[in-house]
Amino acid sequence: MKVLVATEKPFAKAAVDGIRGIVEGAGHTLALLEKYTKVEDLYAAVSDANALIVRSDKVTREVINSAKNLKIVVRAGAGFDNLDLPACTERGIVAMNTPGQNSNAVAELAIGMMIYASRNCFTPGTGVELKGKTLGIHAFGNVGRLVAKLGQGFGMNIVAFDPFVSAEAIRNAGATPVNSIEELYEKSNYLSLHIPATNETKKSVGYELMKRMPKGAVLINTARKEVINEEELVKILEERVDIKYITDIAADIQATLNEKFGVRVFASPKKMGAETAEANINAGLAAANQIIKFFATGDKTFQLNK
């Protein structure tokens, strides 16, 4: 079988070497397409591939249509909105992600952004400490749990909301469950977003939720830009001069936000959540191992399009 690794933003060399060892060690062939600048290059490279590994690269219907022999595609990372799942399903292609492999990297970044915001984005002036503040976790999956654990280490009070996680599981992780998303925002001095971008969540975080946040509150987004209602974000930042928005995913209107609100907003120059050597390697190796298991035994443990 031919396994293609197509990465506009390549894996680290150690990750590529590890992927090669796994794939070729199992008797398959590895092909690389790195730093490509034209989508046509991806169409050509995937045309005879049986398996595909990507990072944030978009696997669109057009990519799927170009891949006549494709059986499986794995997104090396937790988020998977770059995969066209309906197109994969129509073709009988198994789509997977690698949940948990990037979680610690994202969680550490979220805490780092809280520190950055609490110290006035490292500009002169008196800041505040995280200790004793309430940290709200919006979605209590792998990353949310790790953010909660790190927040506990700073002496923060942790509250969490996730309709898909039981109150008992949240308590067992050292956090206090709240009854509603509105209550979560009302109680959180720092609110860390970890929801995926779905039809239900896109633009779901906006004026009505943010206006409930306490004075001096900070919204931290290491999830997806699509979950923010950007027009309503502008409105609340105009009305509430005490609120800050710190994100790892620049808004479509980021230039406007920067101009209007200065150090009250910050966006990392490029998405950095998974940009650690450890996460880079872990996600790549996990993707390769999942493909090998799929071809060997039909294992579909992390299938997304069930």
Write structural notes for this entry:
The protein is an alpha/beta fold and 306 residues long. The chain has two domains: 2-101 and 275-297, 3-Layer(aba) Sandwich (Rossmann fold); 103-267, Rossmann fold. It is built from twelve helices and twelve strands. It has helices at 13-25, 39-46, 61-66, 85-91, 103-118, 142-153, 167-172, 181-187, 207-210, 230-239, 254-261, 277-297, and strands at 2-7, 29-34, 51-54, 72-75, 94-97, 134-138, 157-161, 176-177, 190-193, 218-221, 244-247, 265-267. A seven-stranded parallel β-sheet has the order 8-7-6-9-10-11-12, sandwiched between helices. Strand 3 (51-54), helix 3 and strand 4 (72-75) form a beta-alpha-beta unit. Helix 1 (13-25) packs parallel to helix 12 and helix 5 packs across helix 6. It is elongated and about 60 Å long. The model has no long low-confidence stretch (mean pLDDT 96).
Describe the structure using short key phrases.
Rossmann fold, 39% helix, 17% strand, single chain, alpha/beta, 306 residues, 5-stranded parallel β-sheet
